[in-house]
Amino acid sequence: MKELLRDRGFQAAVLVSFLAMALGFPFYQAKIPLNPGSFLEFYQTALEAQTMLFLIPVAAVLSPGAAYVRESSSGFLKLYLTRTSRMEYIRTKTWRIYAGGFLPFFLAGTGGFLLCFFFLYPLELKGSISWKEIRSVLEILLRISFTGGILAEFSGIFAVVFRNYYMAYGLPFVIYYMMIILKERYLPKLYAWYPGEWVVCQEDWGTDQMGIWIFFLVISLAVMLIHSLILYRRLREI
Amino acid sequence: MDVYIEISHVTKKFGDDVILNDINISMEQGKVYGISGNNGSGKTVLMKCICGFLPVTAGFIRVGGKIIGTEIDFPESIGVIIETPGFLTNLTGMRNLEILAGLKGKISPEEIRQTIRKAGLDPGLKKSVAKYSLGMRQRLGIAQAIMEDPEFLILDEPFNGLDKHGVEDIRNLLLDLKKNGKTIILASHNSEDIRILCDRVYEMDGGRIQEV
Question: Assign residue B96 a region: left if phi > 0, alpha if psi is -120 to 50, beta otherwise?
Answer without folding.
Answer: alpha
